[in-house]
Amino acid sequence: MNIKKMLINSIVLTAVLMLGACGNSQDTTQGDNAQEAGQEAADTTVLKYNSSRPATDPVYAWYEEFFKEVEERSNGTVKFEMYPSESLGKTADMIEASSKGEPIINDGDFAYLGEYNADFGILTAPYFIRDPEDWTSLWDSEVGQKLFSEVENEGMKIMANFYVGPRNLITTTQVNSRDDVQGMTLRTASSKMWTEVGRVLGGEPTNIPITEAYQAFSQGVADGGEMSTSYIESLSWFEVAPYIAETEHILSTTVLIMSADVYRSLPEEAQTAINEVSREYMPIFIERIGEIEAELRTAMEESGAVFTEVDKEPFIEAAQQLPEKFPEWTPGLYEEISAALGY
After folding, report:
1. Which residues of 125-153 are buried (b: 16+ CB within 10 A; e: fewer)?
2. Residue 309, helix vs strand vs coil
3. Distance of CA 27 to the CA centre of its chain
4. 132-140 and 333-340 are packed helices; what angle lies between their axes, rounded to 10 degrees?
5. CB–CB of 92/99 below 8 Å?
6. What pTM was computed for the model?
7. What is the C-alpha separation between 198 and 195, in angstroms, rounded?
8. Residue 331's CATH number
9. How far apart are CA 307 and CA 243, in angstroms?
């Protein structure tokens, strides 16, 4: 009997030891997997994209596609989180954060960069860029690359420059000529160039954040503003400012701005992915914007928006005075860029 008990106890002890060994083996495997996952996370840089566009904007989906392509080309070494409607913060504030090294990407425009380097204001000057394809030509040109790289001195890196369509005047009462704009208060973004754009259009500029523009129009704080078609439609501005004068004063682009230090910290494959995919998507944006402009216009007209053709010459004449307003521009650069684009 004692021998039998001893035999049973021996069998139980052996089983316990075997289970314990199996458990230790499993814990070790799980630990290894966790360590590998942690290492993979450590090798991935997460960048937050702060967009002024709402998620309902058709162009917003193109950015989702663009960032996904960069992620895949980078072999997962960089990933992107998207935040629509300036949900991370106002564009100007977030650009400043990027310049200080924060892992944030902003969609802004060259007028914002003009606050750091005055020469960028040239690229937002009304009626300066004459054809959407000129933006791609500028990107590939020596003078363009030199200008774009100079912002790195301010801690920023220009990832890409995507065409988003012509900007038009949008108002609460109908405009048929530049004279009709006299006395109107026009909403503009908060930079010197955008303030001057408001004056070129003939109005009195007032700086109002894009997220507050709808309310400003509806409450009479502003009599109008100016913006590209996809923004006007997605932000529903036409509901409270239904008159759109086709000034086409700027062939606008969205500039993707990130921290230069963060960019330099990325592995080579991530930098290459950003550079290559950005260049590939520039003509894609030009093509797609051309395709949706007519659709968006029709949709807005069906909802009550009124588009009006206007004589552009008075606006163009007013824009010719802009170089005098910016003595801080590098002498001769305006002409050098014009020559590079064949103007």
Report:
1. bbbbbeebebbbebbebeebeebbebbee
2. coil
3. 46
4. 110
5. no
6. 0.82
7. 5
8. 3.40.190.170
9. 6
| Spatial CA neighbour of 166 closest among 290, 287, 256 | 290
| End-to-end Cα distance, the chain | 108
Residue with tokens 């090294």: 101
Q: How far apart are CA 122 and CA 174, in angstroms?
A: 30
Task: Answer for the pair 207, 188: CB distance below 8 angstroms, yes or no.
Answer: yes
- Cα distances from 26 to residues 15, 21, 23, 274, 310, in angstroms, run 16, 9, 5, 40, 75
* Strands 156-171, 243-259: pairing kind: antiparallel
Helices (H), the chain: 2-42, 58-73, 91-99, 110-113, 132-140, 142-150, 192-200, 213-218, 229-234, 260-265, 268-302, 313-319, 322-325, 333-340
Angle at 70 between CA 68 and CA 72, to 5 degrees: 70
pLDDT digits (tens, 9 = 90+) for 44-94: 999 999 999 999 999 999 999 999 999 999 999 999 999 999 999 999 999
Domain holding 322, by residue range, is 45-340
Burial class of residue 42, CB neighbours in 10 A (0-12, 13-18, 19+): exposed
Residue 252, SS3? strand
Residues of the chain above pLDDT 70, percent? 88
How far is residue 277's CA from residue 146's CA, in Å, rounded to a whole number? Answer: 20
The DSSP string of 90-132 is -HHHHHHHHHTT-SEEEEE-HHHHTTTSGGGGGGGSTT---SH
Check: CB of residue 124 under 8 Å from CB of residue 110.
Answer: yes
**pLDDT category of residue 32 using cuts at 50, 70 and 90:** very low
Q: Report yes or no on 133 lying in a domain.
A: yes
Non-local (6+) Cβ contacts of 187 within 8 A are 206, 207, 208, 213, 216, 217, 222, 224, 225
Tally of structural domains, the chain: 1
